[in-house]
Automatic annotation (TrEMBL):
This is DYW domain-containing protein. PPR repeats lie at residues 25-59, 72-102, 103-137, 173-203, 204-238. Belongs to the PPR family. PCMP-H subfamily. Keywords: Repeat. It comes from Linum tenue. GO terms for molecular function: RNA binding; zinc ion binding. The keyword Repeat applies. Residues 419-511 form the DYW domain. InterPro entries: DYW_dom, E_motif, PPR_At4g14850-like_plant, PPR_rpt, TPR-like_helical_dom_sf. It comes from the Eukaryota. GO terms for biological process: RNA modification.
Length: 511
């Protein structure tokens, strides 16, 4: 009966029944504590854990899992209802090291807890300790650690994990193979992902989705849609995640009509109900194509309450198309949903700056200051010999800054000769032309690219990662540098990958 109450998440009934048990065995304690932890009622779980006469590995694992939850609906519901507070990963960490005996589930729980709670580096380090201790991983372990590699953009470590998989029975495991495909895609190594996908002996829906999503994220829209056709011919039915990838592929390739057809066919031809993510993709697709009024109409017709990302997408497009009216509409709605959104203020100010409305820029910045909203600083990073080097625009901290500036000045002269002209609209400050050019030359992407050119051997692609969208001037400069230096440059921003080679970009200047 206790298990029935727990399985149905009726924790009040479960606690009542548990308290009435005269002689509680280990199974009863395990069931009750596991149930409370699963439902994020950690205060009550902790009290029972302390009172438990004899703890075993199952109960320890349940407690660690409860304190290091994945960001699920259950976890967030528990936060909202007051059963849990964020930031309890430290408690999980403490329990983990206190635990007298650990099994594979323990290690997996802690590694995934680190990765899911934005501590990917700690998760990867723990994986290395686990391997050094002679504990063999399973697909769940590899899935978590590869996700950590993706979060850290650590391609070299991901390749080391791949070698480990190849030497173990997991080399034919579909879940492990799919995790590797996803890692390669997210770390910018699309060809490695494609090779692995082709060689996999078995593929499931998740595998197909991972590869289609990878193509979409890298701007290879035609390849993504071709693979989607191949998936259907193989008898695999698409799901909602598949269509997010398909719409994203259409979005990045500018295939407005085709994307609209796929969106309209979801329910009719495949029985897949459109969800908020699909509407977001369509709003993005319409907005990028300049169909801003149609994007607003779709938001208003959506059966779902709009979430902040939709208005953020609309705002970003308003800057490209210099539409202040719709930008004001999007910013107002975004702030109504999230009054602390820095993106609303920053993006609106950027739209005004792009149209030279500097008084409005100053007004928005004053509103932002009065609201105590802090802008997320833009930065870029690059991995050189397994050391991550981070740069901010106008960086003054990096130890090799002098050499980097020399390299950028050298590049600037070569770029001018090649016909490069700075895009001054990307310098969102009301200053003179010379100062704008200097500000643009010190953008974080350019600093990272220059450092990569200095430190990585000839022929090795330069992989740069950015926490915001790449600006138009850095995009223009990266194309020019790729031709001058005869080097492939790969930049991942918040929306996609850009592959710069021989003076061109894989996005075909549509992003």
């Amino acid at each position: 009966m206790l298990a029935c109450y727990v399985n149905s998440s009726d924790m009040e009934a479960a606690l009542g029944f548990f308290n009435r048990i005269p002689r509680k065995d280990a199974a009863s304690w395990n069931t009750m504590i596991t149930g409370l932890a699963r439902n994020q009622r950690m205060e009550e779980a902790g009290k029972l854990f302390s009172a438990m006469p004899s703890r075993n590995v199952v109960t320890w694992n349940a407690m660690i899992s409860g304190y290091a939850p994945v960001k699920s609906v259950v976890a967030w519901t528990a936060v909202i209802t007051g059963h849990m507070k964020l930031g309890s990963i430290e408690t999980a960490e403490k329990l983990f090291w206190e635990m007298p005996e650990k099994n594979l589930v323990t290690w997996n729980t802690m590694i995934s807890g680190y990765v899911e709670n934005s501590r990917a580096e700690a998760g990867v380090k723990l994986f290395k300790k686990m391997m050094a201790g002679g504990v063999s991983p399973n697909p769940s372990t590899l899935s978590s650690v590869l996700l950590g590699c993706s979060e850290l953009s650590s391609l070299q470590l991901g390749k080391q994990v791949h070698q480990l998989v190849c030497k173990s029975p997991l080399h034919i495991d579909t879940t492990a193979g799919t995790s590797l495909i996803s890692m390669y895609c997210k770390c910018g190594a699309l060809e490695d992902a494609k090779k692995l996908f082709v060689e996999m002996p078995r593929r499931d829906l998740v595998t197909w989705n991972a590869m289609i999503s990878g193509y979409a994220q890298h701007g290879a829209g035609e390849l993504a849609l071709s693979l989607f056709d191949g998936m259907r011919k193989a008898g695999i039915s698409p799901d909602g995640i598949t269509f997010v990838a398909v719409l994203l592929a259409c979005n990045h390739a500018g295939l407005l009509d085709l994307g609209t057809d796929y969106f309209n066919s979801m329910r009719k031809d495949y029985g897949v109900e459109p969800k908020p993510d699909h509407y977001s993709c369509m709003v993005d697709l319409l907005s990028r194509a300049g169909k801003l009024d149609e994007a607003v109409d779709l938001i208003k017709k959506s059966p779902f309450k709009p979430h902040p990302a939709i208005y953020g997408t609309l705002l970003g497009a308003c800057r490209i198309h210099k539409n202040t009216k719709i930008a004001e509409f999007a910013a107002k709605n975004l702030l109504d949903l999230d009054p602390t959104s820095a993106a609303a203020y920053v993006q609106l100010a950027n739209v005004y700056a792009a149209t030279n409305k500097w008084n409005d820029v100053a007004r928005v910045r004053q509103l932002m200051n009065r609201s105590n909203v802090v802008k997320t600083p833009g930065y870029s990073w690059i991995d050189v010999k397994n050391i991550v080097h981070e740069f901010r625009s106008g960086d003054r901290i990096h130890p090799h800054l002098g050499s980097i500036h020399e390299k950028l000045n050298e590049l600037e002269e070569k770029m001018k000769l090649a016909g490069y002209v700075p895009d001054l609209e990307c310098a969102l400050h009301d200053v003179g032309e010379a100062e704008k050019k200097q500000l643009l030359l010190r953008h974080s992407e350019k600093l990272a690219i220059a450092y990569g050119l200095m430190k990585l051997p000839p022929g090795v692609p330069i992989r740069v990662f950015k926490n915001l969208r790449i600006c138009a001037d850095c995009h223009r400069a990266a194309k020019c540098i790729s031709e001058i230096e005869k080097r492939e440059i790969i930049v991942r921003d918040t929306t996609r990958f850009h592959h710069f080679k021989d003076g061109s970009c894989s996005c075909r200047d549509y992003w």
